[in-house]
Design brief:
75% of the residues lie in helices and 0% in strands. By secondary structure, the protein is an all-alpha fold. The protein is globular.
Length: 204
């Protein structure tokens, strides 16, 4: 168990440093834009899209997806002989990525809201049916409401749903469910202002 805890800690740290790569900030800097003082002040995909346009938003999104996908997929490959443990560790690595993205040490812990990287973790870990349904719901919700934040809040629910549906027999089910729920809780905390604006009818 000490060895497993050591792996868990190391992978969470690795995930954090992958996640703290400031994709949106660097793209903005190249364009002479201080993204931390534009729009919402976040360095994630949505603010990059709003403040710098579609191309910068797309590049930011792809960069954020890759910085989550690379470490999570590598963990699953390296630990493929212990499938249940690999899935649990990959989930923890992904949560480390989200923490790094949201609170990057290089930017005084001021980053994004974590939805793009969370979506990447979902793509890397979740059952394909959850991925497809989640994508369809995201598109439908954003199209119907015109609010990206509504679709983002739905995405944040997918990991605990995936854990409940497909990992009940995993010996790591309980800690997996806790970590999965932590993704959701953190996303909702980071979107607290958006939720307030949605309720008030003043969301962007």
């Amino acid at each position: 168990k000490a060895g497993e805890q050591s792996v868990l800690m190391k992978e969470a740290i690795v995930g954090y440093f992958f996640g703290s790569f400031p994709t949106g900030y660097l793209i903005a800097k190249k364009k002479n834009v201080d993204i931390q003082h534009e729009g919402s002040g976040n360095s994630g995909t949505t603010n990059a899209l709003r403040t710098m346009g579609a191309k910068a938003g797309l590049i930011t999104f792809l960069g954020d997806v890759l910085k989550a996908m690379i470490p999570v997929v590598l963990v699953r490959i390296l630990l493929k002989d212990t499938k249940d443990f690999a899935t649990f560790i990959a989930l923890c690595t992904g949560f480390g990525v989200v923490l790094g993205h949201n609170f990057p040490c290089w930017l005084k812990f001021k980053g994004g809201k974590g939805i793009a990287v969370t979506a990447s973790v979902i793509i890397s870990i979740a059952d394909y049916r959850v991925i497809l349904i989640g994508l369809a719901l995201f598109i439908a919700l954003v199209a119907a409401t015109r609010y990206v934040s509504v679709g983002s809040l739905m995405v944040a629910l997918l990991l605990p749903i995936n854990t409940l549906l497909f990992h009940l027999e995993n010996k790591w089910f309980v800690p997996m469910l806790v970590i999965s729920a932590a993704f959701t809780i953190l996303a909702y905390i980071r979107h607290a202002a958006n939720i307030k604006r949605l309720l008030n009818g003043t969301e962007n």
